[in-house]
Design brief:
The chain has 303 residues and is α/β, with parallel strands linked by helices. Helices cover 45% and strands 17% of the residues. Bound molecules: zinc ion.
Length: 303
């Protein structure tokens, strides 16, 4: 299928009361597994590429592969540039095919966060690309990604969120209401009243980072209060590591046994989480609700 507009997808999710999983891919095996998992659930899906992972793969090469996979998919797919550090990397990501970008600059003072995010919005909107901004800060605690998100948690203030959306023009907003990046140590306490107040204060769909480790009912509580995109990576990474270790021991099983095992567990976890998020079975409805998107930002059809 052609790529779809991320803003349309998330607005559809918000209206229909579900969330779309946004899963970070770190190689083409992950891309295949994420799409296969979404196809099994008949769910729309976002495949993300986090700038902090670029040290581990060749981003332009992987985006080219992801573009082929997305167009071949039987469910609507969007390709998202996750945790972008500024205007230049966001522009590069769009050139390579991303149709959504995150401006990850909420650690800066508010006025600088607004200025950088606004510059990304102006550039991205000119070519039909959706922008996710962030107010507040979601830190890391443990596991592969934790070290990449240093600092203390800063919860999102509803009034500041409203100002940020008005001043930047972002299409979707990542909020900090208790989740953390990485593997959680203790049960996460979500500030659901804060989330409800933010959802009341802003008109755009909301995003939760650090989805790994939340209980099913916590996901449902988030979605009931306006969360429409859940970023999920550590859960995939932990399952993939364990599956690869098991498949490659003894080592004479061969490297491809590890690839197959990783693809199977990642796909199964994507299917499982799409069901929890309420995205399962939504692929056809999402497809007809979303404008299509192509690399030059031209809309293939409007509705
Ligand atoms: Zn994140």
């Amino acid at each position: 299928m052609p790529l779809i507009r991320v803003d349309d997808l998330l607005n559809h999710a918000r209206t229909a009361g579900y969330a779309v999983g946004a899963y970070d891919a770190v190689d083409s095996n992950f891309v295949s597994a994420i799409i296969a998992g979404a196809e099994a659930a008949r769910a729309p899906v976002i495949v993300s590429f986090a700038e902090m992972h670029f040290a581990h793969y060749d981003f332009p090469v992987l985006m080219a592969a992801a573009m082929v996979a997305a167009r071949r998919a039987r469910v609507p797919v969007a390709l998202f540039f996750d945790h972008g550090t500024g205007l230049e990397t966001a522009r590069d990501a769009i050139r390579h095919g991303a149709n959504g970008v995150m401006a990850d600059v909420s650690h800066l003072p508010f006025s600088e966060n607004v200025a950088v995010t606004r510059s990304i919005v102006a550039m991205a909107h000119a070519v039909g690309v959706t922008v996710e901004g962030e107010v507040g800060y979601v830190p890391g605690v443990a596991g592969e990604d934790a070290i990449l998100h240093p600092g203390e948690i800063q919860l999102t203030a509803p009034a500041e969120a409203a100002r940020f959306v008005a001043e930047t023009g972002v299409d979707v907003l990542a909020v900090s209401i208790g989740t953390v990046h990485g593997r959680i140590r203790d049960e996460i306490k979500l500030d659901l009243d804060r989330l409800a107040a933010i959802a009341k204060a802003v008109a755009v769909p909301l995003v939760i980072h650090g989805g790994t480790g939340l209980a099913d009912e916590q996901f449902r509580a988030l979605i009931a209060r306006g969360v429409t995109k859940v970023n999920y990576y550590t859960g995939l990474s932990d399952l993939a590591s364990a599956a690869a270790a098991a498949a490659l021991d003894p080592i004479d099983a061969g490297y491809t046994a590890g690839l197959d095992a990783v693809r199977a567990v990642v796909a199964a976890e994507v299917t499982r989480t799409c069901e929890i998020f309420g995205a399962a079975g939504r692929s056809d409805a999402a497809q007809s609700a979303c404008r299509l998107w192509q690399e030059d930002g031209t809309l293939l059809r409007g509705n």
